[in-house]
Known about the structure:
By secondary structure, the protein is mainly beta. It has one domain (37-411): 7 Propeller (Methylamine Dehydrogenase, Chain H), CATH 2.130.10.10. The protein is 9% helix and 44% strand. The chain contains 2 helices and 33 strands. It has helices at residues 5-36, 163-167, and strands at residues 52-53, 68-74, 83-85, 88-95, 98-105, 111-118, 132-134, 137-141, 146-151, 157-162, 181-183, 186-191, 193-198, 204-210, 219-223, 226-232, 236-241, 247-252, 265-267, 270-275, 280-287, 290-297, 308-310, 313-318, 325-330, 336-340, 347-351, 354-358, 363-368, 376-381, 392-394, 397-401, 406-411. β20 (270-275) and β21 (280-287) form a beta hairpin. The radius of gyration is 21 Å and the shape is globular. The termini are far apart. 49% of the residues are buried.
Amino acid sequence: MKPPKTHRRTLLVLSALALGVALTAWWAGAGELAAKATREWHQWLGPDRNNISAETTWSADWGQDGPKVLWKINVGTGWSGVAVSQGRAFTMGNKDKTDTVFCLDAETGEVKWKKSYPCPAGSHPGPRCTPTVDGDRVYTVSNQGNIICFRVADGKPVWDVDARKAFGSRPPSWGFACSPLVMGKQLIVDVGTVAALDKATGRVAWKSRKYMAGYSSPVLFQMGGKPCLAIFNAAGLTILDAANGKQLAQLAWKTSYNVNAATPLIVGEDLFISSGYGTGCALVKPTAGEIKVLWRNKAMRNHFSTCVLHEGNIYGVDGNVGRAGLACLSAKTGEVKWSHGRWGMGSLLLAGGKLIALTDKGRLFTCKASPEGFQELSGATVISGKCWTAPVLSGGRIYCRSHQGQLVCVDVRKK
């Protein structure tokens, strides 16, 4: 016998409240859990999804010959980054209209397993997603919206969801690019619709309204004590309630070709967003119902590379293909501290107060993260081809990848 409608509504409200309380409790304990974790680079932008590595056992002193190359392998065409966990490195590539997910030995490059499935290569061919490793599972998203969970041990598929069938999603011009986010027992993906899937089964816990997908990835942050998701889609910056996917606020951010690709950067209680094609950047303060722009300029135009925050300053790649270089801005005011060079569409990360950057021609270099000016510490060409994928530091090794599929691992461990 069903309870009366009023009782059912009460149960639904209580369930939603319970989920909100659970998310808040999970968030409160996240810092403590993270401190106990291995701090591996297990997902897009690293352990805290902020492009920062806490590693201290690496060295920027490479000598004239550059760092030692440990191994090289071809993983197929694509832009997928590298996730490193449990002594293994994970990435994706495409060949002959087939996507392959690779699990490699992080030290030797030996293929532990690889799993393939049919997938069109698309424009600027290949997958864009960086795999996300969570315990004994690894999660991937293809450029056509195949969301797949594999076992870390042997690559056996656990579940899969086709976003086109499940949500009526349509891939944007250059394909879906979201790297999935694990949030407690849920997996968050942006495939036109932002969806929370049960990470164990793939069942839909909630889904947002439909949006035109951008090329960014979701970030979890707190807004007024409430866990929220920052989604940078084709329309602009969208804030969702992490408990149910309800839209709380939106800031229109129009970019040529609908390319909003860099991941929102958390700056205290604010968010930093940036896009290329002359659009520029802004520091914004999201609240329920409104996103207030604190400052906005064109001094940082991230075509796709996500910036990094260090001691009150934002470092990133400013400009578009062929006309980009490194720049530093004040996070508080947007004032330009310095800009350097025109070395193409590269990417970077921060470790130990130093930037580790890879140019689009395959030159890997380090420099001080200082507002006083650019000062290179070391550098060497380690890979060839078009290198738009962000480098990764994990276990004293740096992983660099080209669009053509060359993946190189170099040793920068302190001797």
